[in-house]
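Collaborator request log, item 7. Partner lab (contact: R.S.) asked for a structural prediction of TIGR03089 family protein to inform their binding assays.
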Amino acid sequence: MAATPADLLADRVRRDAAAPLLTHYDDASGERVELSAATVANWVAKTANLLQDEFDVTAGSTVAVALPVHWQTAAVLLAAWSCGATVLDTAAEDDGRLDDTDVVLAAQDRLGPLEEQDLPELLGLSLHPLGLGMTGYAGPARDYALEVRVHGDVFVPWERPDPAAPGLRLGALELTLGGLVDAARELATRLGIVAGDRVLVDERTAEEAGPVAWLLAPLAAGASLVLVRSPDATRLPARAAAERVTATLGTTIDGIRALGRPAGA
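Returned to partner:
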């Protein structure tokens, strides 16, 4: 049985590597990106190798994440946990606590304020739909897209992640790596996520609920994700039909099960 988030992903790849795991839409840019479990695992492995080989991220390390809800964010989170590190979600942190981290990964549009701090290591993400690098940037942050592509597709941690080690710090919430898996399973059960579900989650709901809800709970349940940034409400019903969505989290679409709500509510 899976003991850490990395195990959850490995289990999914063993069960059905080719099936879609994460489909990402951005209604502001018009982009759509679909990743199978194998492709997600590939990005996770490359990112974990980058973190471990370039920044010595391992058990006891802290990785700060200043990223929006995005498919690349999923890869970064799972990579940090694959290394056995603690993820610090900056959405609920004061900037002053970032000096306790080993590396910070941030969206390009959030790099400015971070550059003014005395951070040990800073990586910038363009969040380009094809994984391309940053453009128009001349600051000190290293470019995630350029750095990650040279790293291997198979990741072997220097030491196996300990389920009892710290895994997530989100405001007052602190969970171990094993606690993340337990919380994900419990939440999936409470919400009613089941194996085979295609779960549509909008950006606002995902940001408010945190990564256990939008990423790990569907993964633990054997479901797949349809993430929507800057959602256009008028497009959601047709999109849900095209993507064969079976359940929604935070968004109500006629004829589709709303997670966490009693039948008929």
